[in-house]
Design a protein that fits this description.
Layout (H helix, E strand, L loop, with lengths): L3 E3 L2 E3 L2 E3 L4 E2 L2 E2 L4 E3 L2 E3 L4 E4 L7 H9 L7 E5 L5 H4 L2 H7 L4 E4 L1 H10 L7 E3 L5 E3 L4 E6 L9 E5 L4 E5 L18 H16 L3 H12 L5 E4 L9 H12 L4 E8 L5 H13 L5 E6 L5 H9 L1 E7 L9 H12 L6 E8 L5 H11 L3 E2 L4 E4 L4 H19 L3
The protein binds MU-OXO-diiron (FEO).
């Protein structure tokens, strides 16, 4: 495995091949926790790894330099997948000073006993000379947490971008041009949809700020390092940031005795009369992670659940609750569902959609028990209306 980014810059992270649940995010392709060593007159490490992998991380550093020669460990982000290794690292590297911003220092103090840690607190635009090399720090609040910052290696034009531009993607390759690009872009999109989507304005501010830098390489905290497809990932972020829609209709449902399923299929049939991409997802067989990724760039959506105990079925409630927290923008849709004696399911689904600011092509479609011909016709018509909305996307 090649792990050299530039002369004196080495990847010292951990590849987590088998992580499958990242607090609810289904990481089907695992992940990496990237950390980097920069060797100069002073030696700096950028970020750590999850606490349980600190030994591997320290062994990678020790393969390059004695651990007592580590002068700085930079904390770009206090979330424990990157800061968890700090206690072990500071024990093993007795001469290391923690470099972070004031918010990060406060956050670290809430996670760990920092009473004997040495800190160098930096602020926006500050530089740190390592001898012949210089690091510069930029705050990127809410990408992903309030204290998030990035580190820029000025001479080599490498941006250590922390969570931004990351992917949950385990690979023995370190660089974008070595691995499978369609897989990487799909994982970057999934990462954006599940982690970054609520932060449109902070992402906009960060992109504007970082857009002024000369960048030869983007080294994020997860996944591969971008060196050949920087323009592509930057452009993708600009599109995802504003949830730029494509000509796609996503129909997601749960069903009890196939009535709501038949309604979903009828909506799909109506939409398929037009030249749009139609996705039909039974949420009993799909997870929330891929669901929200599919929704992110859909122009139109249909969500359905039968009534269960005067509410909706748990899988749909889980999916919609997760989606609502991610604040998707600019969607038009329809709610639907069958019922036995009270049409509560479709109403509750519509309530979720309303809470996400969605527009509707029609009132919720509900039917008692099996969907009859009139209901299915109504569903087909709703599908056509959704497709006409989707056709307006670029
Ligand atoms: Fe990868 Fe927000 O931590």
């Amino acid at each position: 495995m090649k792990s050299t980014l530039a002369d004196g810059v080495t990847w010292v992270g951990f590849v987590d091949w088998n992580v499958r649940d990242f607090h609810g995010y289904v990481t089907a392709r695992g992940s990496t926790y990237n950390a980097y060593l920069i060797e100069d007159e002073k030696n700096a490490v950028i970020d750590t790894v999850k606490a349980q992998y600190a030994d591997d991380f320290l062994a990678r550093i020790a393969a390059q330099i004695p651990l007592d020669k580590v002068d700085y460990i930079i904390c770009n982000h206090a979330e424990p997948d990157h800061s968890g290794g700090f206690p072990a690292a500071l024990k093993a590297c007795p001469n290391a000073t923690v470099v972070c911003n004031a918010k990060c220092q406060a956050a670290l103090a809430r996670h760990f006993d920092v009473s004997d840690w040495k800190f160098l607190v930096v602020k926006e635009g500050d530089t740190l000379s390592l001898g012949s090399k210089t690091l510069q720090f930029f705050d990127t609040p809410m990408v992903h947490w309030p204290e998030s910052m990035v580190t820029y290696y000025m001479e080599e034009e490498i941006l250590f971008s922390m969570d931004a531009f990351g992917q949950h993607y385990a690979t023995s390759y370190r660089f974008d041009d070595e691995a499978d690009m369609p897989e990487i872009m799909q994982e970057a999109k999934m990462y954006y949809a599940n982690i970054v989507l609520p932060f449109e304005r902070p992402v906009g501010r960060a992109l504007e700020k970082l857009g002024g830098l000369k960048i030869r390489m983007i080294a994020p905290s997860h996944g591969v390092i971008w060196r050949s497809h920087i323009a592509e990932i930057m452009a993708a972020y600009q599109g995802w940031r504003v949830s730029k829609p494509v000509k796609k209709v996503v129909i997601a449902f749960t069903s009890m005795w196939n009535s709501t399923r038949n309604m979903a299929k009828a909506i799909a049939e109506g939409a398929e009369e037009y030249d749009v991409n139609v996705h039909l997802l039974d949420m009993a067989d799909n997870n929330n992670t891929t669901f929200v990724t599919d929704i992110m760039d859909a122009a139109a959506v249909a969500f359905g659940s039968p009534t269960l105990n005067m509410g909706i079925m748990p899988r749909m409630a889980s999916a919609l609750t997760y989606l609502r927290g991610l604040k998707p923008k600019g969607k038009t849709g329809v709610a639907f569902g069958s019922y036995g004696w009270a049409a509560k399911g479709s109403e509750e689904v519509a309530g979720y959609m309303q809470a996400m600011g969605m527009e509707f092509v029609c009132d919720p479609i509900a039917c008692q028990f099996s969907a009859d011909a009139a209901t299915l016709a109504e569903c087909r018509e709703a599908g056509r209306a959704l497709a006409r909305v989707a056709l307006q996307a670029e």
